[in-house]
Amino acid sequence: MSKRYPGAEAFAVEELDFEVPAGEICVLVGPSGCGKTTALRMVNRTVEMTSGDISIGGNSIREGDPAQLRREIGYVIQQIGLFPHRTIAENIGTVPTLLNWEKDRVRARSAELLELIGLDPEYGDRYPSQLSGGQQQRVGVARALAADPPVMLMDEPFGAIDPINRSRLQNEFLRLQAELRKTVLFVTHDVDEAIKMGDRVAVLKKGGRLAQFASPTGLLMEPADDFVEDFVGADRALKRLALMRVRDVDLWTAPLAQAGDPCEPVRTAVAAAEVPHALLVDNESRPLGWLSRRDLAGESVPENADSTADPLIDADSVLRDGLATLLQSGSLYAPVVDPRGRLTGVLSVEIVSDFLSSREASESELSAAERPHD
Amino acid sequence: MTEFLAVTAAVDESFFTDRSGGGCIQENRLFCPDWVTDNYDRYLDPTLEHLILVGSAVAAGFLIAFALAVFAHRHRWLQTPFLAGTGILYTIPSISFFFLLLPLTGRGAMTAIIALTAFNLQIIFRNITTGLRNVPPDVTEAARGIGLTRSQVLRQVELPLALPEIIAGLRIATVSTVALATLAVFANGGGLGAEIVTGSNITFKTGIIVAGSIAVLMAILFDAVLLLARKALTPWQRAAP
Amino acid sequence: MNLPAASFGLFGEAFEFVFSGREAETGGVTVGGTSQVLDLAARQLEVTLLALAVAVLLALPAGLLLGHYGRGEFLAVSAGNAGRAIPELALIALMAAAVGVGMFNLVVALAILGIPPILTNTFVGIRQVDRSSVEAARGMGMTERKIITRVELPLAVPTIMGGVRTAAINIIATATIAPLAGILTLGDFIIARNVYGDAGVLAGAVLVALMALALEAALAGAQWAMTSRGMKLKRS
């Protein structure tokens, strides 16, 4: 698939030319007024280009009816733009209805998408004003996905959401994307978001000129020019933390114990382990708490540990967020869990600092970033 | 005072003698309940006429104003001239409008309906325009972006969201028209005004009060119906956040 | 169809009626002519302006106070709704028949028509003034009275004048039927067709329309002059 967006009037976007491989997220990032939104909007022809061409899957978008084209491209904007007079289910079903799907099929699809974005089915009958900002944005994404378009355009989709929810929505979307494999064009002015979300990042400068088109690692390791270096920021070493997922680094292993186990072997394991305490887990290996020396003083492991297992770190989150969680709670290490809550290891501040100082860091990052998110 | 007397002098004596009501009527007291119970039937036709006057004028005003507003929504520069034009029609007093039409349509209900329609246009036009303008731009952008055509955006998004404003305009127009339509009697247009200016008599207090009250009740009724219609048509506005 | 010619003829007669007068339908005397036209027009304007002044004097301070203190919203807003429902003809007729004819009663009746829109719009206009402007004024040490007159009133001018214009249009229109209450205005030409004939009726209709449009234009001009420059800039 190739996209090319040469010049709008007065070159809002000038001679922009790059290709996005199918199934990847390509982020357009740049300072405000750099033409990134204009470029995005040329793809679904809500802004018509002056010259040049954009093709999707080998077909030029200039052929055919713009409304028809837009029905085949998902579109999410910062202000969401849900229809306040329609229920959530009707909002999600907008494009399928336009495409003349049968009523039952539209309803089934809405229900399916509600589940996909993690909203209770009963939300289908509510109106947008009854949902929180984060929930509305999820519905916005679901509406864009409704007719299963191969291509999605997202214009600062999480820009109006508070930082905590933004990070959650970003992770959720990455999880969805791993499953759905859409070709996504994503606009943001936030470098951190670009690095986190993008398989590829296009940095634009004023006039819509392409300053660099690279993988996030490439951007951080080898900025093409002073503009990109400036834009990416002085803290790019730290930004590399946003490139690694917690599950991709070597985690520590903690001694494990279940309630009722004899204490003796656990005490032995603790003495030899990287982590100076043992974790109490249930029979699905979900962490329940940290066992203190006092907990292990008896014959068998008690039902309740001296302290809780919190904070838990999501294995899918990036290293930067994992470090932030550690620093916030004041702990030196914390259990890492998969989406079902099962323990996968323990992340420590030491692991992060080793990662930052290691020479191999850059190489491992590069290889990690070249892999598509899975 | 001579001209004034020419209007009101000829009190139709039979009007009082034909109908019961007794001494109250003879003395023309403020309100004679007996007369009303004996004569309620004489208000049926004028009430129906009044309903037709108001219904036709508001319906015609709505259709024209709607067409103008939708057209001016697509061609924004037309809004100012349309507003000015309908503003002139609104400003010309209806009673004057009846007789400006005299050389064209003569006297009668049609003349009254045209004048009342002209009065309505701006109120309805202004509200439809405001309602369409107040639709949040992100909603229309999203609508266009996910593939609604221009007319689909108008029909499925903009007009439904403008509905509260449109009905507010209809309420103002309807209530004002019910009151103004009493003047239709001067254009031989019938309606409740005919029971206020009875014959050439405007001194019959009970008649004035009954006809005036029916007009006020009719206005309240129209208003209530439109209010209920709005509630029924805009369920999303009742949804608690 | 000789309608255009006929209508032109009637307009010609109306023109003649205004400028030179015609013989009354009842015979004998000459009616119309510039002196009677000016006489009746002056009376209509007088009645209108008097009633409008009374309505403004009563409704404006009430609206300002209610709006400033945020009280009586239900009263102020439903006054506007209820005002629209008053049948003008019944009001004038009842006033004349039950209270009596004459200037005073007529002005009272017309003022009753003018009060609701001015009250409602003043209230709404004041409530719409940005509360931060009011807080800033209070913070700078303005008295409540000064806040009303120096901050809220100027900012609410467009909305208040909208109400005054609505009131004026309704009053001047209703002043046309003032002859029913014994005060002869231009409406006499319209109502007393048996005296003035169709030429007089048409002449009256044209004169009343022109007068209403002139009053509306004058008030629009006054609103423009009274609106502070800063607000005009913001609007454009």
Task: Describe the structure in brief.
The complex is a heterotrimer of chains A (374), B (241) and C (236). Chain B has helices spanning 2-8, 13-18, 22-26, 33-39, 44-74, 79-91, 94-100, 102-105, 109-133, 137-145, 150-180, 205-233.
**Main pleated-sheet profile of chain B:** none
Q: What would CATH call the architecture of chain B?
A: Orthogonal Bundle
Number of strands of chain B: 0
| CATH class descriptor name of the largest domain in chain A | Alpha Beta
* Shape descriptor of chain A: globular
The biggest sheet of chain A amounts to: 6 strands, mixed
Mean pLDDT of chain B: 87
Biggest interface reads: B-C, 51 and 47 residues
Residue fraction in strands of chain A: 15-25%
Which regions of chain B contain 5 or more consecutive residues with pLDDT less than 50? 1-11
According to CATH, the fold-level topology of chain B is MetI-like fold
What does this structure look like?
The complex is a heterotrimer of chains A (about 375), B (about 240) and C (about 240). Chain A has about 375 residues and is of the alpha/beta class. Chain A is built from 15 helices and 17 strands. In chain A, the strands form 5 sheets. Chain A has a 6-stranded mixed beta sheet with strand order 6-7-8-3-9-10, sandwiched between helices. In chain A, strands 11-12-13-14 form a 4-stranded mixed beta sheet. A 3-stranded mixed beta sheet of chain A has the order 15-16-17. In chain A, strand 16 (about 335) and strand 17 (about 345-350) form a beta hairpin. In chain A, helix 5 (about 105-115) packs across helix 6 (about 135-145). Chain B has helices at about 1-10, 15-20, 20-25, 35-40, 45-75, 80-90, 95-100, 100-105, 110-135, 135-145, 150-180, 205-235. Chain B is mainly α. Chain B is elongated and about 75 Å long. Chain C has helices at about 5-20, 35-70, 75-85, 90-100, 105-130, 130-140, 145-175, 185-190, 195-225, 230-235, and strands at about 20-25, 30. Chain C has one domain: MetI-like fold (Orthogonal Bundle). Chain C is built from 10 helices and 2 strands. With about 240 residues, chain C is an all-alpha fold. Chain C has a two-stranded antiparallel ribbon with strand order 1-2. The longest helix of chain C has about 35 residues, at about 35-70. Classes of the chains: A alpha/beta (about 375), B mainly alpha (about 240), C mainly alpha (about 240). Chains in contact: A-B, B-C. Chains A and B meet through helix 2, strand 6, helix 4 and helix 6 of A and helix 10 and helix 11 of B.
